[in-house]
Design a protein that fits this description.
Layout lengths: L18 H6 L1 H14 L3 H7 L2 H5 L1 H20 L3 E3 L4 E4 L3 E3 H5 L1
Antiparallel strand pairs: 1-2, 2-3
Length: 103
């Protein structure tokens, strides 16, 4: 089975984009840290809490959208485990008994 992801382009940027991902997924947070290092300016801060005018500049918009898109992809790849009251656990790759996960 093939899977395709479609990510947004210029014009979809908004202050606050990617913040929930970075707050909740270490893999997504790492993407923003890597982008900050590579660009030598705080792209994450601009995305999360910057001003709209700065984010609208193409020189900022393009890396911001790329970083947010990669962060979203990395969050999808991150291991996820949810436990149900019936004793089953779901991960993003399988359904198994919680005893197998914790045992």
């Amino acid at each position: 089975m093939s899977v395709a992801f479609i990510f947004p382009g210029q014009g979809s940027q908004a202050v606050g984009m990617g913040k929930d991902l970075a707050d909740n997924f270490a893999a997504a947070r790492e993407v923003f840290e890597q982008a900050d290092d590579a660009l030598e300016f705080p792209l994450a801060a601009m995305c999360f809490e910057g001003n709209e005018e700065d984010l609208q500049l193409t020189a900022n918009t393009q890396p911001a959208i790329l970083a947010t898109s990669v962060a979203a992809y990395r969050a999808i790849e991150a291991p996820v485990v949810m436990l149900s009251s019936s004793g089953w656990a779901w991960t993003n790759s399988s359904l198994r008994d919680t005893g197998e996960i914790t045992g």
